[in-house]
Specification:
Layout lengths: L2 E4 L3 H18 L4 E4 L6 H12 L8 E4 L1 E3 L10 H13 L6 E2 L11 H12 L4 E4 L21 E4 L2 H7 L12 E4 L2 H5 L4 E5 L5 H9 L17 E5 L8
Parallel strand pairs: 1-10, 2-3, 2-6, 3-5, 6-9, 9-10
Antiparallel strand pairs: 4-8, 7-8
Helix pairs in contact: 1-2, 2-3
The chain binds 2-amino-2-deoxy-6-O-phosphono-alpha-D-glucopyranose.
Length: about 240
C-alpha cells in the first residue's frame, strides 16, 4: 500500500509537502514539479510561498500542469494556465518559460496532447507530481473508464465534475465540456506521486483509490501501480481508510 500520512489540517499537510519539495529543490540542480489545480493543492502552494519567503529559490524549477479546459478565451481567470500563473508562477518567482500547461485552444486542439507529451519527453519527465482526487475518483481529468496506459489527450468531463467545478464559474453552462489532460499512463511516469485529499467529501474516493480494487472505473486506483506514492490527507478524508 501507498505510504499514507494523516495530518491534522490541510494547512499542516500543505506545509509538510511544501517542506519536502523545498528540500528537494535545494538539494538538486534541477527539479521538475508536476502541479495540480482545484482547491486541494492550494495549501501546498501556500507552504511553498512560506518556503520562498524563508529563502528557498524556486526560479530554476520546471513545472508541468496536469490538465487544462478546452476552449476558454485566452486569459480567462479560471483557465488552468491562469490559475497556475496566479498560484504558482508569480508568487514563487518561477521562470514563465519553464511553466508548461496543456494548450486548450480550439485552434490546433487535435495535436495538443501529442505536443504536450513531446514537451514532457524532451524535458525528461516529472520528479514529483502533486495530485488531487475528484469525487468521481478522477485524477487530472481522467474520468472513470480512462485507460491506465492513456497519454495526454482531449477528454469529455462528466456532468458530476462540471457540477463540482461550477463553483469557479458564474454558472454550470460556463464550465467547459472538454479538457486536455495528462493520461493515467503519463501521470504514472512521474518519479514520485503525492496525492492529497481533504474533507469528508473525498473519503470514499480516497479509500477506493488507495485500498480498493485496481480498476479503470476508479482512475485514482492507478496510483497502486506506482512504486513511490505518498498520500497526505486530513482525518476527515482518511475516515474511510
Ligand atoms: C479538478 C482537477 C483535478 C482535481 C480535482 C479535485 O477538476 N482537474 O486535478 O484534483 O478536480 O478538485 P478539488 O481539489 O477542487 O476538490
Amino acid at each position: 500500500m501507498a505510504e499514507v500520512i494523516v495530518l491534522e489540517s490541510p494547512a499542516a499537510a500543505g506545509a509538510f509537502v511544501a517542506a519536502h519539495i523545498a528540500a528537494e529543490v535545494r538539494a538538486r540542480p534541477e527539479f521538475t514539479l508536476g502541479v495540480a489545480t482545484g482547491s486541494t493543492p492550494l495549501p501546498v502552494y501556500e507552504g511553498l510561498r512560506a518556503q520562498a519567503a524563508a529563502g528557498t529559490d524556486f526560479a530554476r524549477i520546471t513545472a508541468f500542469a496536469l490538465d487544462e479546459y478546452v476552449g476558454l478565451p485566452a486569459g480567462h481567470p479560471e483557465s488552468y494556465r491562469a490559475v497556475v500563473d496566479r498560484e504558482v508562477t508569480v508568487p514563487l518567482g518561477l521562470d514563465p518559460a519553464r511553466v508548461n500547461v496543456p494548450d486548450g485552444a480550439l485552434d490546433g486542439i487535435e495535436t495538443a496532447g501529442d505536443r504536450y507529451e513531446a514537451a514532457l519527453a524532451a524535458h525528461g519527465g516529472v520528479d514529483l507530481q502533486l495530485l488531487g482526487i475528484g469525487t468521481t475518483g478522477h485524477i487530472g481529468f481522467n474520468e472513470p473508464g480512462s485507460s491506465f496506459g492513456s497519454l495526454t489527450r482531449v477528454k469529455t468531463l462528466t456532468e458530476r465534475t462540471r457540477e463540482d467545478n461550477a463553483r469557479f464559474f458564474d454558472s454550470i453552462d460556463q464550465v467547459p465540456i472538454h479538457c486536455v489532460t495528462q493520461g493515467l499512463g503519463t501521470i504514472l511516469r512521474a518519479r514520485h506521486l503525492v496525492l492529497l485529499a481533504f474533507g469528508e467529501g473525498k473519503a470514499e474516493a480516497l479509500a477506493a483509490a488507495v485500498e480498493g480494487p485496481v480498476s479503470a472505473s476508479m482512475p485514482g486506483s492507478a496510483i497502486q501501480l506506482h512504486p513511490r506514492v505518498t498520500v497526505v490527507v486530513d482525518p476527515a478524508a482518511a475516515s474511510r481508510l
